[in-house]
């Protein structure tokens, strides 16, 4: 049975939206108070003495704070041309611009405000895209622990903006924004193959060619100056990730002994490629783009050689866009919270050279990993039910699907 959604009230008259906005703002305000360095940390001009120890102990670590000093952002060096950064170009430029805020406190505050605004923008886009599910993105406490851990929320905002433009048939602008999104954080790339498949299936060849051309041109415009100016620094992001070792994850844990990096890379690539082909086939048969993208992304998180805890926030965003059932959001939230505590507990024990580390690493840490991957797998399985995979025509309002 399909029930059409009635026209939405203006956002300031929408009680559900205002409640979601209040919850989202509350999470970010709390996170800001938790993570903002204080005392001697704020008085350190060029380095943060013992920041990791302080932050891990209080479950208050933030890459925003740490990278300000480890990447010498206070010197305002031109990203990639004068300074090597292990992130894509748009994020590197973002870090450089915000570094002009006065001092560490100003820098952290400027980033916190911009990330919060990105979260608010994400909520607006989700309200338009999935009016029956959007509030779950704001209500999750994952925003408390991951919202200001890194800059991922900005990447999620750009991805949602690109997807919104695509669903409204603003194809040229969608291609531009998707290029910005991909070179801020690569994860929006998981949507693009299925857009191409859908356009080809619908015989919109000119639109497909136009989007590809604009995306490529925008990508060249974004990366070109840095490739020419300092190829070695620009390519560091790719070299860093290619040479990155296997983390404590699916491939290296209490039950599975560490495999060589080359073997893990090969197995991961094979599994992810097979998953892509499987989802391409489903989109070709009429499956929705976001349903395919969310499943493919979940598979990637399960088998990738490195898992950063904040990736769970991306998984939740994909799940909400695909309108997975509410129970899947619960699984992802629980898994993400457990993973946060588990990851930073072991980092603290390692930093302190604690004798308790071996016991924790053998007994409790593997259970946290099991919860992480079990939560992603459970959410993906729940999201694969037929009732959550019906096609919604881009540009049309979302619909409630019920048996």
TrEMBL record:
<feature type="transmembrane region" description="Helical">
    <location>
        <begin position="171"/>
        <end position="200"/>
    </location>
</feature>
<feature type="transmembrane region" description="Helical">
    <location>
        <begin position="212"/>
        <end position="234"/>
    </location>
</feature>
<feature type="transmembrane region" description="Helical">
    <location>
        <begin position="85"/>
        <end position="101"/>
    </location>
</feature>
<feature type="transmembrane region" description="Helical">
    <location>
        <begin position="107"/>
        <end position="126"/>
    </location>
</feature>
<feature type="transmembrane region" description="Helical">
    <location>
        <begin position="15"/>
        <end position="33"/>
    </location>
</feature>
<feature type="transmembrane region" description="Helical">
    <location>
        <begin position="138"/>
        <end position="165"/>
    </location>
</feature>
<feature type="transmembrane region" description="Helical">
    <location>
        <begin position="299"/>
        <end position="322"/>
    </location>
</feature>
<feature type="transmembrane region" description="Helical">
    <location>
        <begin position="254"/>
        <end position="278"/>
    </location>
</feature>
<keyword id="KW-0472">Membrane</keyword>
<keyword id="KW-0812">Transmembrane</keyword>
<feature type="transmembrane region" description="Helical">
    <location>
        <begin position="328"/>
        <end position="350"/>
    </location>
</feature>
<keyword id="KW-1133">Transmembrane helix</keyword>
<protein>
    <recommendedName>
        <fullName>DUF2029 domain-containing protein</fullName>
    </recommendedName>
</protein>
């Amino acid at each position: 049975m399909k029930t059409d959604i009635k026209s939405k009230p203006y956002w300031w008259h929408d009680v559900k939206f205002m409640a979601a906005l209040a919850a989202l703002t509350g999470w970010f305000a709390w996170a800001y108070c938790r993570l903002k360095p204080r005392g001697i940390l704020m008085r350190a001009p060029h380095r943060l003495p013992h920041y990791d120890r302080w932050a891990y102990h209080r479950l208050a670590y933030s890459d925003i704070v740490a990278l300000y000093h480890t990447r010498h952002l206070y010197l305002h060096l031109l990203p990639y041309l004068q300074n090597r950064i292990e992130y894509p170009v748009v994020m590197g430029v973002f870090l450089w611009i915000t570094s002009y805020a006065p001092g560490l406190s100003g820098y952290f505050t400027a980033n916190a405000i911009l990330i919060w605004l990105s979260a608010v923008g994400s909520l607006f886009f989700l309200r338009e895209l999935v009016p029956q599910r959007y509030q779950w993105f704001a209500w999750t406490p994952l925003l408390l622990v991951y919202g200001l851990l890194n800059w991922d929320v900005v990447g999620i905002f750009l991805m949602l903006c690109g997807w919104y433009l695509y669903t409204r048939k603003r194809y040229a602008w969608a291609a531009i924004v998707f290029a910005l999104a991909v070179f801020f954080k690569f994860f929006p790339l998981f949507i693009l193959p299925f857009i191409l498949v859908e356009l080809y299936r619908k015989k919109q060849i000119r639109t497909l060619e136009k989007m590809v051309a604009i995306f490529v041109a925008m990508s060249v415009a974004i990366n070109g100056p840095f490739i020419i100016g300092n190829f070695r620094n620009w390519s560091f992001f790719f070299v860093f990730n290619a040479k990155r070792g296997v983390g404590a994850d699916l491939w290296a844990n209490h039950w599975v002994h560490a495999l060589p990096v080359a073997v893990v890379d090969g197995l991961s690539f094979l599994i992810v490629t097979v998953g892509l082909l499987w989802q391409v086939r489903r989109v070709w048969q009429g499956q929705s783009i976001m349903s395919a993208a969310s499943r493919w992304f979940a598979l990637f998180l399960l088998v990738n050689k490195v898992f950063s805890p904040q990736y769970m926030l991306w998984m939740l965003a994909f799940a909400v866009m695909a309108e997975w059932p509410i129970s899947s959001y619960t699984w992802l939230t629980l898994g993400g919270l457990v993973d946060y505590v588990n990851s930073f507990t072991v980092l603290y024990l390692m930093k302190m050279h604690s004798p308790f580390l071996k016991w924790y690493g053998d007994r409790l840490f593997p259970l946290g990993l099991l919860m992480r991957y079990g939560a992603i797998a459970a959410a993906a399985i729940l999201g694969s039910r037929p009732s959550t995979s019906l096609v919604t025509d881009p540009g049309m309002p979302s619909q409630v699907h019920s048996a």
